[in-house]
Each structure stands twice: as structure tokens, then as C-alpha cells.
Amino acid sequence: MLHAVRVGLAMLVSILVTSGIHVPNGIWASVTVLVVIGGLQHHGNIRKKATDRALGTTLGALVGLLLIAQLHFIGSMPFHYVLLSIAAGVCGYYAIGNAGYIALLTAITICIVAGHGDSTIATGLWRTLNVLIGIAIALAFSFALPLYATYSWRYLLARNLRDCARIRARIARGQPLDVEGHVAAFAALNGRLVKLRSLMPSVAKEIDIPVKRLEAIQRLHRSTLSALEMMSTSAALHPAAAGGADDAYADRAALLTMARALRFGSESRAGQRLAARIPGAGAGHSNDDGERGEGGVRIAPDDILPGPRWIAGWFAEQVDALRGLLGDTERHWHIEGDAAARAQMHRPH
């Protein structure tokens, strides 16, 4: 809803600005607003797209003005068409690479500015100005009414972790999900997992974190869900082997700690909560699961390895690893801390 309001207001402002100062061809400012923010709601993507748009527009405008100048000094229309086609071909070559959006916008701007030989230098300059006005308006609204993918990523992950804690508690109480409940619960968990992946590129741009770190969190999250799904299936078949109450308490406490830190941010002092050790968390459920080898890695007997308690131990290890990784990256995704620090710096002493 906020995105729809933002796009509508940005469009209105572009119309008022270009009409108010009587800028010719003002429609191109409105078109640019739609291109930059129309299909992108998150701040990180808008900022990147506006930068690409500005660079592509600048390159396209310069080439377009050179083509118009050629018409004025040489006056060859066939030569103009050949140069326009060559420019389009070069842009098309780069459009399939990493800078594809910039190349595509360069080609579009060349056509807008130069036209088919019927444009003047003044017309080309006005069209270039309109595009830059549209970029400025789009950026202004993305900063004034920002929608951060980071919050969506945090809230979705927190919801999944909270649901995992609920399912883990039910397994420990000997009340595993029935078949229909199991299918519905894990369909919802996996659906949010897919949404989290789609948000990762925007989150990486917004909080200046390598995508590989987010991939590591995603991988641990996926492993946790896989272990929990096996536990839920196994608990329905072997309720007595679902795991001890102490083990379940540590798992549930760690999951809820992560969920609160992600959901409430500064109010929950995310870093302190995640850094605190949960009694029993990641202990590996070693009381019945055999000896430990070098480095404390658990070595389970052959008759225990495929069983429910081994799965419970694996689940606990994944939860503890996820808690540690979220704690390590907290300074990036805990963006309320940055806002609080800025407010503290500007507060009069």
C-alpha cells in the first residue's frame, strides 16, 4: 500500500514540476519516475536502479547529442541512420552482460534524444533534463518514504524461527503434528524460505553485507527446517524417542531468542541476546548419543545414527550455528542501531 501511495505521489510531483516550470516534453520525467520506482519497492534496489538510470541516461544523452551535431555539421541522414544502428548494436552487445540495464537505457536514451533525424540539439537537451528530473524525484521519494527489504527479511525469518520453536515444543510434549498439520506448517515455512531468498540481493545492498553471508544464514535456516521436518515425521512414528524436555527447552529458547532479536531489534538488544549462551544449546544431546571424537564432534553408534535422537542432535547443532551467525552479522542487519547512533550524535548536549 505504501509503495502504491509513493508511486502515485511521485507521479503527481513530476507532473506539477514539469508543468509548473513549463518544461517541454515533460512526459519523459513521469516515464522515468515509473521506470525507476514503479516495479521496485525496496530502497536498495531503487537506489541501484536510479544510479544505473542516471549513468545510462548520461551516456545516451551524450551520444544522442553527438548524432544530432552530425546532422547539423555533415547533414547526412543515411549516415545518421548507420550511426544510430551501430550504437544500438553496441548497446545490445553489452545488454546481455552485468551492465545490461545501463546499456539498455543508453540505447533507449539515444533514440529519445537523437530521434530519426528530426530532433534539434535543444530538444535533446530538454529530454535529457526531463529524465534527470524524473530520477531526482524518484530518489527523493525513495528516501522520504523508504521501504527496507531488511525489515521484511528479518520479520519473515523471525516468524519462521518462532514457528520452529512451536513445532519443537509440540514434539517434546509428545504431541507431534498430524499429517495435514505437518503439510500445512512446512508449506508455510518453505514458502517464507523462498521469499527470504528473493529479498537477499536488496538486503545486501541496503546493509552493506556480502551476499555470501546471507547465503550462509539461508543455508543454515534451510538445514534447520530439514532437520525439524524429519523430527516431526519421526515423532509421529516414534513419540517415545522424540527427545528429552531439557533438550527441547534449550532448542526452543535459542529459537525464540533469535526471533525476538530479529523482530524487535534495538528494544531487545539484539547483539547481547544473541551473544548470550543458552544453557544446553548446541550440546549435541550427548547423554545417550555415544562418544565424541577429535574436536568434540559427536560419534554416534550405528544403531543410534539414523534414529530420532540423532536428528534432534543435528537440529540443535544447526540452531546453535544459526544463532552464532546471526550474532556475528547483527551489526549489519540491526539497522535501528545505526539510526539510534545518528540520533545520539545530533542530540544537543
TrEMBL record:
Where is the region Disordered?
277-299
Where is this chain's protein located in or outside the cell? Cell membrane
What is the protein's given name? FUSC family protein
Choose one Gene Ontology CC annotation of this protein and give it. plasma membrane
**A Gene Ontology molecular function term of the record:** transmembrane transporter activity
- Keywords recorded for this protein, A-Z: Cell membrane, Membrane, Transmembrane, Transmembrane helix, Transport
Top-level taxon of the source organism: Bacteria
Indicate whether Thylakoid appears among the record's keywords.
no
